[in-house]
Design a protein that fits this description.
Layout (H helix, E strand, L loop, with lengths): L2 H15 L25 H14 L5 E7 L2 E8 L2 E4 L17 E4 H8 L8 E2 L6 H6 L1 H7 L1 H8 L5
Antiparallel strand pairs: 1-2, 1-5, 2-3, 3-4
Length: 157
Amino acid sequence: MTLHRAYSLLCKSVPSLLGRNNALFLHKGQVDTIEHFEGRLSCGACCYILHAHLKTLGIDTMMMHKVLGREDHCFLMHGQTVIDPTYRQFIPREMWFDSFMYVGPLAHLEEHCQISFWSNARESTEVMDASEVMISKRYAKKRGTLFLDLHGKQLCF
């Protein structure tokens, strides 16, 4: 998986799933570059797309969900490895890792961010069917307008 390919997929698909016109809202300071990607309030949609992309590469993941007070967060797990494309939304820019997506041990991420949005998370009940949405227009239509719009983009995971 190249980070640029994953970034491109997220920017092309997540706005459709969230009913937005473009990907600027995914970026800190509204600057549309990989260096500014934070994915604020879009963790579920980002994980939905990234899960399908990783699956095509033979990487099985589970979407995890954590509620902390009135906030919640979704991320992916591959074995004991956290894959989180939206971790940056929780920390100041000066604390961001070089990569827009965190891939590594849970303890390292929580220690660095000094919050516990990852430990004791539970597997999400969200249906992870982006591949089916992209393949079948009929299926996408059943899922709803936003999924039909995603299908229409004809993205290859």
